[in-house]
Amino acid sequence: MAGALSGKTPRLELDQITRAFDGVSVVDELSLALEAGQVTCLLGPSGCGKSTTLRIAAGVDKQNAGRVLIDGTEVSGKRRHLPPEKRKIGLMFQDFALFPHLSVADNVAFGLKNTSKAQKQARVSELLERAHLTDFGPKYPHQLSGGEQQRVALVRALAPKPQVMLMDEPFSGLDNRLRDDIRDDTLSLLKEEGTAVLLVTHEPDEAMRMADNIALMRGGRIVQMGAPYNLYNAPVDRAAAAFFSDVNVIHGVTRNALTDTPFGQFLTPGMVNDADVEIIIRPQHLKIDFDRHGKGPDPTPSDGVAARGLVRRARFMGAESLIEFTMDYDGSDLRATVPGVFLPKADTALWLTIRRDRCFVFACAKQRRVTDPFIAAIAAS
Fold first, then answer.
1. 320-323, long-range: CB < 8 A, 24+ apart
2. Banded pLDDT at 290 (limits 50, 70, 90)
């Protein structure tokens, strides 16, 4: 657990949480810990248990087993279950849930209890200024844009100085052009407050942009947890790699710890003979040898053996071009991305190399007796 490793008491701790509906586990023995000022994202596909985990942390739902602790104090367990208003948490959801009959200032002040009028006004003014909403106090929610409503919902949740902020897809309703700015402003404000944040999202880009730690969920469990860099560059399996970006899958069979591919042999130690192997590489790490353009013998550059492919289709995607190939070696399909504009005609022969240091090697999913439908769907793609 994070708190145990750092020696600090976690601000929020979920300890072996299990939640089942009609005998089916939606969250299965899940544990995680958040420290003050830390942003952790629960990331995963729909139905993996993210929102249920958040609801349990909030006290809106109750686990069948396990404990929820805030600052080391149990708030939900076998003998105790505090409601959300007793947990010193802030809640932010997709619909913002602002009170339409209250002004912006009154919405922000709503959660400030046992506080003098002067203290309320000071806290409201402080937060509105920090959220770039200084002149919005007298306005009503229907007079605000979606981005402005999101900021109001955030500062209303922060007004009582909660120890933990729980956020369920809070940016999903915003226009793409606004989303990045709103997320950056939100993250800055949360960091200034020193709040521990648990954010649910199904968007890898959002998790990478906001999180100190990402908890990748699948089938009610955390399958991998760590800093965004580590999850992206050291995925635990094919499904984890594919969740963060498009991937190419090169299939092979290992023999004597070696696997033949269009790009030469790969070391595959630790795998039994005749085991099916998947070598994963992202399109941006599949390189086109522009010096050869399909002419001459098979070269052997520093990246390894080059392989020839025929262009099936090329598309300009804005910042980059996507080129789809059919490989001479085995007829398999691979995709490469190239910065800028590069649109070779169909059936053009090009030589390709790969960044071996950017490849991930896994035993084929079907050999791991995978029953999770999410992994099975990716493995079959």
1. 320/284, 322/283, 323/288, 323/350
2. low
Structure tokens at 247: 């991937």
Long-range contacts of 369-372 (CB under 8 A, 24+ apart): 372/218, 372/219
The pLDDT assigned to 115 comes to 87
Specify the pTM. 0.84
Separation CA 355–CA 138 (nearest Å): 58
Q: Tell me the pLDDT tens digit for each residue of 353-373.
A: 998 889 999 988 664 433 333
Report domain extents, the chain: 2-236, 239-380
Average pLDDT over residues 21-33: 95
What is the spatial distance between Cα 370 and Cα 364, in angstroms, rounded to a whole number?
10
The dotted CATH code for 2-236 is: 3.40.50.300
| Residue 302: strand, helix, or coil | coil
Whole-angstrom Cα distance, residue 42 to residue 211? 9
- What is the arrangement of strands in the sheet containing 196-201, beginning at the earlier edge strand? 89-92, 164-168, 196-201, 39-43, 213-218, 221-226
pLDDT at 291: 58
Cα separations in angstroms, 365 against 242, 268, 347 = 13, 15, 32
Supply the CATH classification number for the domain 239-380.
2.40.50.140
Retrieve residue 356's tokens. 């071996």
pLDDT tens per residue, range 140-162: 999 998 888 988 988 999 999 89
Say if residue 378's pLDDT is above 60: no
Residue 104, classed as helix, strand or coil, is: helix
- What's 195-244 look like in SS3? CEEEEEECCHHHHHHHCCEEEEEECCEEEEEECHHHHHHCCCCHHHHHHH
CA proximity to 130, closest of 171, 188, 174: 188
